[in-house]
Amino acid sequence: MSRTSTLIVLGILIIIVPYSGLPVAFRGLLEIAFGALVLSIGLWLRSKEAKRATLSSPEPMAEPSVPAAHAEEVPPPPHGVSPI
């Protein structure tokens, strides 16, 4: 069973547990266990997706160089915070 299928099944179980007729203490344990499993699988999928995105992202483009004739026309960036 894939991780996404497992998440769907755990979600259904979390919805069903309160109506299962089990003792309150056991229901609480099941809800915590199912919730922890959902959280761990979700975090695993998110880290896997983030790793895949960093591996497939192209390298950042280099800034275009400004010819020396136009370098004087570009004002320098501000160095302080505006008093407004």
Structure report:
The protein is an all-alpha fold and 84 residues long. It has a domain at 3-55. 61% of the residues lie in helices and 0% in strands. It is built from 3 helices and no strands. It has helices spanning 3-16, 24-56, 68-71. The chain is elongated and about 80 Å long. The mean pLDDT is 81.
Number of helices: 3
- What gap, in angstroms, lies between the N and C termini? 59 Å
Outline the biggest β-sheet. none
Shape: elongated
Strand-residue fraction? Answer: under 5%
Return the average pLDDT rounded to an integer: 81
Q: What letter string, H or E per element, gives the SSE order?
A: HHH
- The stretches of 5 or more residues where confidence is low (pLDDT under 50) are none
Q: What's the β-strand tally?
A: 0
Structural class assignment: mainly alpha
Radius of gyration: 27 Å
Percentage of residues in helical conformation: 55-70%
Task: State the gist of this model.
The chain is 61% helix and 0% strand.
Throw out a few tags for this protein.
mainly alpha; 3 helices
SSE layout:
Layout lengths: L2 H14 L7 H33 L11 H4 L13
Helix pairs in contact: 1-2
